[in-house]
Amino acid sequence: MFAAHRMSSPFAYSRSFSQIQYQTSEASKLNKRKSKVTIHMASSLDGFIAKKDGDVSWLRSTDLYEPGITLTEEAIKDFLEGIDCYVMGSKTYEHALELGWPYGETPVVVLTSRQRKAERETVEFYAGDLPKLINRLRGKHNHIWMAGGAMLTKEFIRLKLANKLCISIMPIILGDGILFFDFVGSEQQLHLEDVTAYKDGMVELSYEILSD
Fold first, then answer.
1. CATH node for 17-209
2. What is the pLDDT of residues 149-167, one digit of tens each?
């Protein structure tokens, strides 16, 4: 799976209580629809998605866990074919361009407050209301994959916009860096759907985010 990286949040955190209440209500309605929104992130065991300088080279594990599953190119291809839209922050987008575009011709929506020109026809830049965006995407796509970064992940969880949460834990403790997410502000119940251990020592936890 593709690791997610840090981002600059396009959202202001000075919303009034009524705005937050409205958005949470709208988001709860979205989860009742058939389309699925999955949050995915790769992190260290202590919950960091990148070092302070943005370095993610540690995502390439040299560990060996013999009973683990080997992640084949065919399995990755089959998995990616089930995703028909990606949502990400601007830093994740920029990092994907630097590393070599991994999303093919699948539509990508980038959350950013900056005016910018898309390098690819399949990329849309968005700076508006997040629940409204997800509502629109749910009407067009069956599986929406939220690829990062940390602050956008927090918004998705806080506003209850996702159905699934997938965390790929790498066999490393970073000690410091950019956190996956923190201080969401509310308790949310999860249901563990699956646990998969890979030969490189990565352990993937898949959760259903239970609705209220």
1. 3.40.430.10
2. 888 999 999 999 999 999 9
